[in-house]
Protein backbone atom coordinates (compact mmCIF):
# COMPACT_ATOMS: atom_id res chain seq x y z
CA UNK A 1 0.00 0.00 0.00
CA UNK A 2 1.39 3.41 -0.98
CA UNK A 3 1.58 5.95 1.86
CA UNK A 4 -0.64 8.97 1.49
CA UNK A 5 1.17 12.06 0.17
CA UNK A 6 2.03 14.74 2.70
CA UNK A 7 -0.24 17.74 2.78
CA UNK A 8 1.23 20.65 0.78
CA UNK A 9 2.11 22.57 3.98
CA UNK A 10 4.10 19.63 5.42
CA UNK A 11 5.84 18.91 2.12
CA UNK A 12 6.92 22.57 1.96
CA UNK A 13 8.13 22.40 5.55
CA UNK A 14 10.15 19.24 4.84
CA UNK A 15 11.79 20.94 1.84
CA UNK A 16 12.54 24.01 3.94
CA UNK A 17 14.21 21.83 6.60
CA UNK A 18 16.43 20.22 3.95
CA UNK A 19 17.44 23.68 2.68
CA UNK A 20 18.19 24.89 6.22
CA UNK A 21 20.32 21.80 6.91
CA UNK A 22 22.31 22.53 3.72
CA UNK A 23 22.82 26.16 4.74
CA UNK A 24 23.85 25.16 8.26
CA UNK A 25 26.38 22.67 6.88
CA UNK A 26 27.92 25.40 4.68
CA UNK A 27 28.28 27.67 7.74
CA UNK A 28 29.79 24.85 9.81
CA UNK A 29 32.19 23.95 6.99
CA UNK A 30 33.30 27.59 6.63
CA UNK A 31 33.87 27.80 10.40
CA UNK A 32 35.92 24.58 10.35
CA UNK A 33 38.01 25.83 7.38
CA UNK A 34 38.60 29.14 9.14
CA UNK A 35 39.61 27.34 12.37
CA UNK A 36 42.11 25.14 10.50
CA UNK A 37 43.79 28.12 8.82
CA UNK A 38 43.84 30.19 12.01
CA UNK A 39 45.37 27.24 13.92
CA UNK A 40 48.06 27.00 11.22
CA UNK A 41 48.83 30.74 11.46
CA UNK A 42 48.92 30.69 15.27
CA UNK A 43 51.42 27.80 15.23
CA UNK A 44 53.56 29.56 12.59
CA UNK A 45 53.62 32.67 14.78
CA UNK A 46 55.41 30.69 17.50
CA UNK A 47 57.79 28.44 15.60
CA UNK A 48 60.44 27.38 18.08
CA UNK A 49 61.57 24.24 19.90
CA UNK A 50 58.26 24.05 21.80
CA UNK A 51 56.03 24.15 18.70
CA UNK A 52 53.94 20.96 18.41
CA UNK A 53 54.94 19.99 14.87
CA UNK A 54 52.39 17.16 14.74
CA UNK A 55 49.64 19.77 15.22
CA UNK A 56 51.19 21.95 12.51
CA UNK A 57 51.49 19.07 10.03
CA UNK A 58 47.92 18.02 10.88
CA UNK A 59 46.64 21.25 9.29
CA UNK A 60 47.48 19.67 5.90
CA UNK A 61 46.25 16.68 3.95
CA UNK A 62 48.78 13.88 3.48
CA UNK A 63 49.28 14.85 -0.20
CA UNK A 64 49.15 18.64 0.33
CA UNK A 65 51.16 21.18 -1.64
CA UNK A 66 52.64 24.36 -0.07
CA UNK A 67 53.95 26.82 -2.68
CA UNK A 68 55.25 30.32 -3.08
CA UNK A 69 53.85 32.00 -6.21
CA UNK A 70 55.34 34.75 -8.31
CA UNK A 71 58.91 35.95 -8.67
CA UNK A 72 59.54 36.92 -5.03
CA UNK A 73 57.79 34.10 -3.14
CA UNK A 74 58.35 31.43 -5.79
CA UNK A 75 62.09 31.99 -5.52
CA UNK A 76 62.17 32.46 -1.73
CA UNK A 77 59.92 29.57 -0.70
CA UNK A 78 59.68 27.22 -3.68
CA UNK A 79 57.21 24.37 -3.46
CA UNK A 80 56.81 21.46 -1.08
CA UNK A 81 54.70 18.36 -1.67
CA UNK A 82 53.34 16.15 1.09
CA UNK A 83 52.67 16.66 4.79
CA UNK A 84 56.18 15.48 5.77
CA UNK A 85 57.96 17.83 3.35
CA UNK A 86 55.82 20.78 4.46
CA UNK A 87 56.58 19.94 8.10
CA UNK A 88 60.31 19.77 7.35
CA UNK A 89 60.24 23.15 5.57
CA UNK A 90 58.40 24.79 8.47
CA UNK A 91 60.60 22.98 10.99
CA UNK A 92 63.67 24.76 9.61
CA UNK A 93 62.28 27.99 11.11
CA UNK A 94 62.43 26.52 14.65
CA UNK A 95 66.18 26.93 15.02
CA UNK A 96 68.39 24.30 16.62
CA UNK A 97 66.44 21.91 18.81
CA UNK A 98 67.71 20.76 22.23
CA UNK A 99 70.17 17.90 21.77
CA UNK A 100 70.51 18.53 18.03
CA UNK A 101 74.06 18.35 16.70
CA UNK A 102 75.67 20.93 14.48
CA UNK A 103 75.90 24.71 14.63
CA UNK A 104 73.51 26.16 17.18
CA UNK A 105 71.07 28.77 15.87
CA UNK A 106 68.09 30.52 17.46
CA UNK A 107 64.57 30.34 16.03
CA UNK A 108 64.31 32.30 12.78
CA UNK A 109 61.66 34.64 14.23
CA UNK A 110 62.10 36.62 17.43
CA UNK A 111 58.57 37.95 16.79
CA UNK A 112 56.06 36.95 14.14
CA UNK A 113 52.37 37.77 13.68
CA UNK A 114 50.01 36.99 10.80
CA UNK A 115 46.85 39.03 10.26
CA UNK A 116 44.19 37.71 7.88
CA UNK A 117 41.53 39.87 6.20
CA UNK A 118 39.33 40.05 3.08
CA UNK A 119 38.21 36.46 3.58
CA UNK A 120 36.37 34.59 0.86
CA UNK A 121 35.43 30.91 1.33
CA UNK A 122 33.68 29.30 -1.63
CA UNK A 123 32.45 25.68 -1.66
CA UNK A 124 33.64 23.88 -4.81
CA UNK A 125 32.09 20.50 -4.00
CA UNK A 126 30.60 18.62 -1.04
CA UNK A 127 34.05 18.08 0.50
CA UNK A 128 36.15 20.80 -1.14
CA UNK A 129 36.38 24.59 -0.98
CA UNK A 130 38.52 27.48 -2.15
CA UNK A 131 39.58 29.88 0.60
CA UNK A 132 41.25 33.24 0.04
CA UNK A 133 42.67 35.85 2.38
CA UNK A 134 44.84 38.92 2.15
CA UNK A 135 47.54 38.42 4.78
CA UNK A 136 49.71 40.95 6.57
CA UNK A 137 52.81 39.55 8.30
CA UNK A 138 54.92 41.51 10.75
CA UNK A 139 58.21 39.90 11.70
CA UNK A 140 61.39 40.53 13.65
CA UNK A 141 64.12 38.01 12.95
CA UNK A 142 66.77 36.55 15.22
CA UNK A 143 69.19 38.99 13.58
CA UNK A 144 67.15 41.91 14.97
CA UNK A 145 65.96 43.08 11.53
CA UNK A 146 62.21 43.59 11.05
CA UNK A 147 60.05 43.19 7.97
CA UNK A 148 56.51 43.87 6.77
CA UNK A 149 54.94 41.62 4.14
CA UNK A 150 51.52 41.46 2.56
CA UNK A 151 50.47 38.43 0.55
CA UNK A 152 47.50 36.95 -1.24
CA UNK A 153 46.71 33.49 0.11
CA UNK A 154 44.78 31.09 -2.11
CA UNK A 155 44.02 27.74 -0.50
CA UNK A 156 42.28 24.62 -1.69
CA UNK A 157 40.64 22.98 1.31
CA UNK A 158 39.43 19.39 1.58
CA UNK A 159 37.39 17.46 4.10
CA UNK A 160 39.74 14.58 4.91
CA UNK A 161 38.81 10.94 5.49
CA UNK A 162 38.37 11.60 9.24
CA UNK A 163 35.86 14.39 8.51
CA UNK A 164 38.30 17.23 9.38
CA UNK A 165 38.89 20.11 6.97
CA UNK A 166 42.56 20.46 6.04
CA UNK A 167 44.68 22.46 3.61
CA UNK A 168 45.21 20.52 0.37
CA UNK A 169 46.99 23.31 -1.53
CA UNK A 170 48.48 26.42 0.08
CA UNK A 171 49.61 29.19 -2.27
CA UNK A 172 51.09 32.50 -1.14
CA UNK A 173 51.91 35.40 -3.46
CA UNK A 174 53.70 38.55 -2.33
CA UNK A 175 51.88 41.86 -2.65
CA UNK A 176 54.21 44.06 -0.58
CA UNK A 177 57.54 43.51 1.11
CA UNK A 178 59.70 46.01 2.93
CA UNK A 179 62.08 46.25 5.86
CA UNK A 180 61.02 48.36 8.83
CA UNK A 181 63.14 49.74 11.65
CA UNK A 182 61.34 48.09 14.57
CA UNK A 183 57.89 47.14 15.90
CA UNK A 184 58.08 48.02 19.55
CA UNK A 185 58.46 51.53 20.89
CA UNK A 186 58.41 52.99 24.38
CA UNK A 187 56.88 56.23 23.06
CA UNK A 188 53.54 57.06 24.70
CA UNK A 189 50.42 56.26 22.71
CA UNK A 190 48.81 59.35 21.15
CA UNK A 191 45.43 59.64 22.89
CA UNK A 192 43.07 62.63 23.27
CA UNK A 193 43.71 64.93 26.21
CA UNK A 194 41.42 64.37 29.20
Which properties best describe this structure?
194 residues; 6-stranded mixed sheet; single chain; elongated
Fold and architecture overview:
The protein has 194 residues and is of the alpha+beta class. 30% of the residues lie in helices and 38% in strands. It contains 4 helices and 6 strands; from the N terminus they run H-H-E-H-E-H-E-E-E-E. Strands 2-1-6-5-4-3 form a 6-stranded mixed beta sheet. It is elongated. The N and C termini lie far apart (82 Å).
Q: First CA to last CA: what distance?
A: 82 Å
**Share of helix, binned:** 25-40%
Summarize model confidence as the mean pLDDT: 92
Main sheet?
Answer: 6 strands, mixed
Taken as a percent bin, the fraction of beta residues is: 35-45%
- Morphology call: elongated
Unreliable spans are none
Strands, total number: 6
Question: What is the succession of H and E elements?
Answer: HHEHEHEEEE
Radius of gyration: 22 Å
Tell me the number of helical segments per DSSP (H or I, 4 or more residues long): 4
Structural class: alpha+beta
Q: Which strand order do you get reading across the main beta sheet?
A: 2-1-6-5-4-3
Topology of this structure?
Blueprint: H1 8-44, H2 53-57, E1 60-69, H3 70-77, E2 79-81, H4 83-91, E3 109-125, E4 128-141, E5 146-159, E6 165-180
Parallel strand pairs: 1-6
Antiparallel strand pairs: 1-2, 3-4, 4-5, 5-6
What's this, in brief?
With 194 residues, this protein is of the alpha+beta class. The chain is built from 4 helices and 6 strands; from the N terminus they run H-H-E-H-E-H-E-E-E-E. It has a 6-stranded mixed sheet with strand order 2-1-6-5-4-3.
